Amino acid sequence: MVRYVYDFAEGSRDMAGLLxxxxxNLAEMTRLGLPVPPGFTVTTEAxxxxxxxxGEPAGMWQEVSAHLTAIETAAGRPLGQPEDPLLVSxxxxxxxxxxxxxxxxxxxxxxxxxxxxxxxxxxxxxxxWDSYRRLVQMFGSTVxxxxxxxxxxxxxxxxxxxxxxxxxxxxxxDLAGLVETYKELIRxxxxxxxxxxxxxxxxxxVLAVFESWNGERARLYRRREHIADDLGTxxxxxxxxxxxxxxxxxxxxAFTRDPATGRPGMYGDxxxxxxGEDVVAGIRNTVPLTELERLDPASHTRLxxxxxxxxxxxxxxxxxxxxxxxxxxWMLQTRVGKRTAEAAFAIAAALVDEGLITxxxxxxxxxxxxxxxxxxxxxxxxGTGAPLARGIPASPGAAVxxxxxxxxxxxxxxxxxxxxxxxxxxxxxDDLPGMLAAQAVLTSRGGKTSHAAVVARGMGKVCVCGAExxxxxxxxxxxxxxxxxVVEEGTVVSVDGSAGAVYxxxxxxxxxxxxxYLEDGSTDEDANGLVxxxxxxxxxxxxxxxxxxxxxxxxxxxxxxxRRFGAQGVGLCRTEHMFLGERxxxxxxxxxxxxxxxxxxxxxxxxxxxxxxxxxxxEAMDGLPVTIRLIDPPLHEFxxxxxxxxxxxxxxxxxxxxxxxxxxxxxxxxxxTHEENPMLGLRGVRLGLVVPGLVAMQVRAVAExxxxxxxxxxxxxxxxxxxxxxxxxxxxIEREEVERVLAEVSRESGVPVRCPVGTMIELPRAxxxxxxxxxxxxxxxxxxNDLTQxxxxxxxxxxxxxxxxxxxxxxxFATSPFETLDRDGVGRLVRIAVDEGRAARPGLKIGVCGExxxxxxxxxxxxxxxxxxxxxxxxxxPVARLEAGRAALEGTDVSDSR
Length: 898
Ligand code: ADP
Ligand code: MG
Ligand code: MG
What we know:
An 8-stranded mixed sheet has the order 12-22-21-14-15-16-17-13. By secondary structure, the protein is of the alpha/beta class. The radius of gyration is 33 Å and the shape is elongated. It folds into 4 domains: 47-239, Acyl-CoA Binding Protein; 250-339, ATP-grasp fold, B domain (D-amino Acid Aminotransferase, Chain A, domain 1, 2-Layer Sandwich); 376-510, Glucose Oxidase, domain 1 (3-Layer(bba) Sandwich); 545-634 and 675-889, Alpha-Beta Barrel (TIM Barrel). The protein starts with a strand and ends in a 9-residue tail after the last helix. The longest helix has 25 residues, at 596-620.
């Protein structure tokens, strides 16, 4: 029989799929003997069944009742009993934490009757009414669907009437009156009464959590985080403990290390006389945990001990929620905490030093995208004045953008291509779309655990929160700094999430410490040991990885930088980039040539230029392979724009002038080479086969560069790569020409030039006939950009802007196939080509040179497909090294190695 409910004592953290993150970790804490209020969890399976059928699965309520009875028996009183009510919370918790998505309801079991009982047994009328008004408010908005701003307005109005700054100053009578106002509000808005049956409250709350799985915000978050829509959420029901029982009570959140920098030490916020959600809501100002040490040293000591237990048990940074009820500490939640990229590296290294994890585990816990973030530039504030304001550095990085004061403006302006900074007093889940659209989030309230901070960190967005000196007026769409500077909507500001400062205008950028280290090994200015931690992760990755990492580089400078970043060669050198700028004229002359002599002259002028380029790159990569791709793009890319040219000629004619003969020739050539679908036209190997002399010139340039480098005592390792081959015959013919020229140059120079000749695999036909192509190819390199275009039938430049966002919305793909390799389609072709290519030519060297070569997920695929190397842009080389290492660990027991 299927079970739908598990007591905390029956679960464990391995059951997150079934009990959700929150439920399974509560179970784990219970098993560890930490003080967790008793409770049980209704499984994600029950939620899935409910969402599939629209009704709760058979037997679920009986199970819930049985487990509730157990809690009631232990507590010695039933849920909502009038004289002495047991109260519970109903909490959502999916497999993956989804901050702020699903609302928790506290104080279930309170009614008009039991609130009086609670007042009596607790000895505090104020507390009882405060709890009741929270329940009516949360239940009203979450379960009954009343717009929560109605409740907030009523509360604000009451506080204004009583002239008190916050809700702790409201009296029991005030709160009792507020409950009446709230209940009336619910009647007005829904036509229903707030339910006075504790059992009905519980039942409706549980179902509301199920329903909330499909709420709009939850879906948006899942789409962005690539969380499957069919996982469902679990629901945890737990006996209430009360942080709002007076000044010897309170609630807090804490991290076992600083989630922004990774520095060790308890880190968190505490709010006396408050229920849990007050801490993160930012309605009152929290105090740091050091203050708790003063207020309640005994609880602080216990908290520290529990946090140590948790960190040693989870062997990672944990974040926790706790409540102190009249001096008794209760643990309400834990999980492995989110952290910034910086903290991820620092913590991984620290845990290795503390002997808690192995270096392989440390490597598994950091990611390529995090590393990429650490390579972003930082602000150079040396020439900048004082900041407008300072706040808490909640999520690091440097961002510049126009200030906007609400989510929809952020979305609108960002969609129009503008960079924006979302400025709010504090954020709520309603701001999520705007946070997604913004470069940075800036708030005037809230601490490191506020909604803005937690969500921004999760997204890798720059965030400064709690910049209290700023007066944010969202209604007027402006904020004011203490020095009187007014930032209107649209004003550019610079937000430094690492230092926690915001500046007016655009602050210039400078290299990050990680980039400086990668460039020249320098590790100064590194207060947190971040650079050392990154170096250790990369070292470990280099030790365990099987994939080699090369770079795509077209200039000696790029090649040199790539080498400093750890590239083991150039996987793609695009020769056509050497035809642009000044040299375009020479290409033009070649295209316009009327006879062989003119063409040879033009090619002859290009030859020494190309040779020089290759000499530079081969020198920068001396001793390492450099894969040079023969010309790829269609020729008209080197000619002037057709319309521009036609207009120029037409205006000349209109003025009565005779257009220059050159222009006329050019227009002729442009018309001749014009293609409707250039991506599928005369390009790649086709050009080499049809345009005489072009390939010979390029190969000669390569060969002569090899000769020159050899004579200079170098060790040039050039490889020649033919693009866009679809049939082995194309490659055979082209290759004969290549070999002929290589032999010619060898003869002339007396230096034997031996360059492997290979091909790109970037057409489905090439992949499907790879066995035959391998007979003529000494290596393969997947051009996954073109292979994606031709497999999907997408012209990248046309489709991305036109409909990719709609496709992402509709869930047709979770990420663009141009960013992350489409394993099912393109990946299948890759596997076929690898298998058949190697079957035909054992030991065939195979790499990838599309942009996917630097994408973490794709790197893992290429590793599993058995490729020899990935090649990516120089700045992605460290990312690829790290991910290649992580890919090699996949499926191994990382806790077991040294
Ligand atoms: P979220 O997922 O948004 O953090 P939680 O389920 O953790 O939601 O609950 C919101 C707040 O209510 C948290 O601060 C939590 O600690 C508090 N809370 C939840 N259950 C209880 C309980 N049984 N007693 C006291 N506080 C609770
Ligand atoms: Mg929580
Ligand atoms: Mg291509």
